[in-house]
Fold:
Amino acid sequence: MGIKVKDLISMSDLSVAEMKEILTNAKAMKEILKRDIKKVPTLRGRVIINLFYENSTRTRTSFELAGKYMGADVININVSTSSVAKGESLLDTAKTLDSMGADVVVMRHPASGAHHLLGQAVKARVINAGDGAHEHPTQALLDLYTMLEYKQDLQGRKVAIIGDILHSRVARSNILGLNAFGAQVWVCGPPTLMPARIEDLGVNVTYKMEEALADADVIMMLRIQLERQKKGLFPSIREYAKFYGLNKRKLALAKRDALVMHPGPMNRGVEITAEVAECCQAVIEEQVTNGVAVRMALLYSMGGVKTNVIA
Ligand code: CP
Structure:
């Protein structure tokens, strides 16, 4: 079926059927990751360009691996050593990459809206790898995949997203995805880190971590994004950890088989203790593995299907 829209900028660009198709294909991709030789020719001859204006370990590397495992040529643009450092605009950079025959541009950019601009300017398909505090759709897809691996069905499941909701593109994309799968989403954090009218997205809001955790099926802890905060939005890291950090004692309030998730990178000892991050309920490393499989499935849908590896 593939994805109807040219560019994937928001989870709202995908229908539920398209999300399900990506997640189903990701299962087949995960099988490829278990092979000795992780290589299929599906995207041979395709060019994928990673254009990251912000730091990344997981997303950039997993897109690179996903493209390479599928036979594509993957180019990473290091913005700090590219002509961007000489003042070249985003659009001129994008048009240059387009002229070189890019099929897909995967971009991370600090500005919400940068991907719309890029998508309109280039023939290549654009994938949003994170835009400011707006969205991170491929993170939400891999999170959905991970939850469904363990919980099979998300209908009515209580998913608590806890932490810096205000600056979190992960939270926004996950809310859209989880709503599409019928989950009951709770968001929790200090009032200063809660966006105005967040309840309009169809979520329950609480400032008490205990309420968010009570009988939760999934706990998604978010990183405190100090780099996006211009002024102190909470008194101290120590106080934040006391009220909104996840430790073993608080984890006991959730269901016994509740999953503990974190998109990474983690601030251990702040939003999550090392003990919880390493406990048997944590699926944080699984999220990273699934990120490669899900991005392979997305590139399969968006990069042009040449050989059917799913059969
Ligand atoms: N989860 C996530 O986006 O991680 P990176 O910033 O390392 O890509």
User: Anything to note?
Assistant: The chain has two domains: 11-135+289-302, 137-287. The radius of gyration is 19 Å. Residues 56-59, 130, 139, 263-265 surround phosphoric acid mono(formamide)ester (CB under 6 Å).
